[in-house]
Amino acid sequence: MIELKDISKIYKTKNGEIAAVKNVNLTVHKGEIFGIIGYSGAGKSTMIRLLNGLEKPTSGSVIVNGQPISSISGNKLRQARQKISMIFQHFNLLWSRTVAENIAFPLEIAGVPAAERKVRVKELIDLVGLSGRENAYPSQLSGGQKQRVGIARALANNPEVLLCDEATSALDPETTDSILELLLDINKRLGLTIVLITHEMHVIRKICHRVAVMEAGQVVETGDVLQVFQQPQADITKNFVMQVSGTKDSKDSIEQILANYPTGKIVKLTFIGNKTEQPIISQLIKQFNVEVNIVHGNISQTASGPYGTLIVQILGEDSNVQKALNLLNSIEIQTEVIEHA
Ligand SMILES: Nc1ncnc2c1ncn2[C@@H]1O[C@H](COP(=O)(O)OP(=O)(O)OP(=O)(O)O)[C@@H](O)[C@H]1O
């Protein structure tokens, strides 16, 4: 559906060249929700501008929905872009138009007759849950409602791809979740391909199927979201995963527990899918005569299933502790010894 082949984007500035994107290769499949995460300056906005044809790459090619976006221009590019919609952090609504008029705007531009527009606008308003607010102006709406208008407007002309530019960054956590659920619902119902850029791992965890992690213009890691959560490779990815697994906060607890029980091993266990529901800890205790102190535990849902992190201290004879770790590894629970006594 989307293919980026060896893309680089170099900006020439007074102070020399800036490589905003460097040698990026990415494929996004039809119907998936693909997230691009990175800190400020990583190159995410440049990537999204390359995807909708607002920027041309310095080298490489961008293909979206079968169209070589990076090499077409004029009418051809305009036509191709009708199938690529976008929603924005600050909504970009027309303030002098009502909700219904904002949603009708792209239909007017596409030359859809008034009667057909009316039916389509009603459908879209129902789809995004804004019934009853048709005649409100953007200034009378909450942030979440404004983004719902942005989503309805983006869907008006039945796009193949929806690009989301930090679409929930201006919203509070609860509203963020409701907008993410709406995007997930639209993806499932319409089979729409969604590419989003964000600096929040929560957004990736909640709705993305796959993720690319960007740092200094490069993609440093890509993979299925569950797999990246379970086995992050790059340091930056580990930091992003810690944002949502809560393990950053467990440092003090680990120090405390080591002061109280200065023997044994502190081990971080990461597990996915139905392993989150198994009584693994009691099995370890019974089978290997070890004691287990729980330091931190967390289970989160992703779009592809549950994912859990548990930090425990395992106390016992070395050989028994090792056997316990071997058992965990054999049932595909990721173990990482983070402190030795
Ligand atoms: N038009 C431009 N001219 C010159 N440099 C640019 C231009 N656009 C982006 N850059 C530079 O390219 C790099 C990547 O910027 P980009 O905006 O793509 O990153 P980002 O990950 O989206 O960060 P942010 O979330 O802060 O926008 C930065 O160093 C930025 O200063």
TrEMBL record:
Residues 2-241 form the ABC transporter domain. The keyword Disulfide bond does not apply. Keywords: Amino-acid transport, ATP-binding, Cell membrane, Membrane, Nucleotide-binding, Translocase, Transport. GO terms for molecular function: ATP binding. Coiled coil: none annotated. PANTHER family: AMINO ACID IMPORT ATP-BINDING PROTEIN, METHIONINE IMPORT ATP-BINDING PROTEIN METN 2. This is Methionine ABC transporter ATP-binding protein. It comes from Ureibacillus galli.
